[in-house]
């Protein structure tokens, strides 16, 4: 039975894409949209990127793209990939290929004209679908049936696919989180468990990139559960071993109910301990960005907030600490309390307290201390340790007084301090 995505793929009507497909199909060559765009359209999900597979060799792809007035960029020419910018949109155009040699991280490829061989060297059946320019879907590995069943399967032998690139272990759970239902494919799950030690051969950047994509899924809790069952989670994230992943479900429910944006870093914080030293080690091991590492560390350093805390007391803690760290703490506490509130009235009251404090923290703006060293120098203070000590003491008094003392009052206190 023929399946078409025409009529439900707005991206397919793009005139620049159609011109590119036509140019790559001239003179007996062929070109089809490949992978995620076809999969997501069949699943009724949004499409971010439109990639193309073609029988044209890379140099010919470049020539034809230029002839059409498009901009070709040889982003991965050794693997047959040319990024063609057409109408302002980038399209990865890759020559049909087969893997000749793999080492679990990289592959040497040979170019060809066989669509079935090209499909079979891909990872999962749902990612190995093609679409002609008119929207007709070409399925050579049973991907359509798996999409209809929301089933994620490796193409061919799972172990063979994983040995070609061990990142496919993490991709198995990531794609299951985004597209799968029920239980993961049993053979795929067993292969991931058996070959998990191969993950050590991957770069930290690739591992964290996949984990972030998994943690960005609408609800990654089932995938994380199966990752833990297969001992894959503790292989790449040993910090989660004794902390657990139970908080994820409550967090994703809170996100949905309260309109929070899915936040992979907050979800990570939900499954690891708030230990600053361990979080620094984690960030270094997985090569976090500077901003990611800072946020994770500040969350760990931010002390827990009780639900009965007053706004005034929280303001003092926010001033002395890191607001994002406290916001993360409050979100996680609120999500946990909401889950407990199903059977515990006390937890319902706690949730109300955390909700109040979170709203306050989100709108809170850090006040500016009214005095500077120059103000004390103008009063006759000599630059040095004593000036700094007086300034710090005055700031502490100002904080403890709820930021109420104004500049005049603080100058009077400074003058008194200088007299002693």
Automatic annotation (TrEMBL):
This is CCA tRNA nucleotidyltransferase. Residues 31-153 form the Poly A polymerase head domain. Gene3D superfamilies: Beta Polymerase, domain 2, cca-adding enzyme, domain 2. Keywords: Magnesium, Metal-binding, Nucleotide-binding, Nucleotidyltransferase, RNA-binding, Transferase, tRNA processing. GO terms for molecular function: metal ion binding; nucleotide binding; nucleotidyltransferase activity; tRNA binding. Its cofactor is Mg(2+). Residues 188-240 form the tRNA nucleotidyltransferase/poly(A) polymerase RNA and SrmB- binding domain. Belongs to the tRNA nucleotidyltransferase/poly(A) polymerase family. GO terms for biological process: tRNA processing. InterPro entries: Bact_CCA-adding_enz_type3_sf (IPR050264), NT_sf (IPR043519), PolA_pol_head_dom (IPR002646), PolyA_RNA-bd (IPR032828). It comes from the Bacteria. SUPFAM superfamilies: Nucleotidyltransferase, Poly A polymerase C-terminal region-like.
């Amino acid at each position: 039975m023929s399946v078409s995505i025409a009529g439900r793929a707005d991206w397919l009507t793009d005139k620049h894409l159609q011109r590119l497909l036509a140019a790559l199909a001239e003179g007996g060559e062929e070109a089809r949209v490949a992978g995620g765009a076809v999969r997501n359209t069949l699943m009724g999900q949004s499409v971010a990127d439109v990639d193309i597979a073609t029988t044209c060799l890379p140099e010919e792809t470049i020539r034809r793209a230029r002839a059409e007035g498009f901009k070709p960029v040889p982003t991965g020419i050794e693997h047959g990939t040319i990024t063609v910018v057409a109408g302002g949109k980038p399209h990865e155009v890759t020559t049909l290929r087969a893997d000749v040699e793999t080492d679990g991280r990289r592959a040497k490829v040979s170019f060809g004209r066989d669509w079935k061989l090209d499909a079979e060297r891909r990872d999962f059946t749902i990612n190995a679908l093609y679409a002609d320019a008119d929207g007709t879907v070409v399925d050579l590995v049973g991907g359509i049936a798996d999409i209809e069943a929301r089933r994620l399967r490796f193409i061919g032998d799972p172990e063979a696919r994983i040995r070609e690139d061990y990142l496919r272990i993490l991709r198995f759970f990531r794609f299951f989180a985004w597209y799968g239902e029920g239980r993961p494919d049993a053979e795929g799950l067993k292969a991931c468990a058996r070959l998990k030690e191969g993950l050590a051969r991957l770069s930290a950047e690739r591992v964290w990139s996949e984990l972030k994509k998994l943690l960005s899924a609408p609800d990654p809790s089932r995938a994380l559960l199966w990752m833990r069952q297969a001992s894959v989670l503790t292989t790449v994230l040993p910090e989660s071993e004794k902390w657990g992943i139970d908080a994820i479900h409550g967090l994703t429910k809170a996100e949905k109910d309260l309109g929070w944006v899915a936040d992979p870093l907050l979800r990570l914080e939900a499954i690891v301990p708030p230990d600053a030293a361990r979080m620094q080690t984690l960030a270094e091991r997985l090569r976090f960005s500077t901003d990611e590492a800072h946020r994770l560390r500040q969350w760990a350093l931010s002390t827990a907030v009780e639900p009965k805390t007053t706004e005034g007391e929280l303001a003092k803690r926010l001033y002395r600490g890191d607001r994002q760290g406290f916001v993360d703490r409050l979100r996680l506490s609120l999500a946990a309390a909401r889950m407990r509130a199903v059977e515990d009235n006390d937890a319902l009251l706690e949730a109300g307290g955390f909700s109040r404090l979170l709203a306050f923290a989100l709108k809170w703006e850090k006040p500016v201390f009214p005095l500077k060293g120059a103000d004390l120098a103008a009063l006759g203070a000599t630059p040095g340790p004593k000036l700094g000590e007086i300034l710090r003491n005055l700031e502490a008094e100002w904080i403890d007084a709820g930021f109420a003392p104004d500049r005049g009052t603080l100058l009077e206190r400074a003058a008194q301090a200088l007299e002693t």
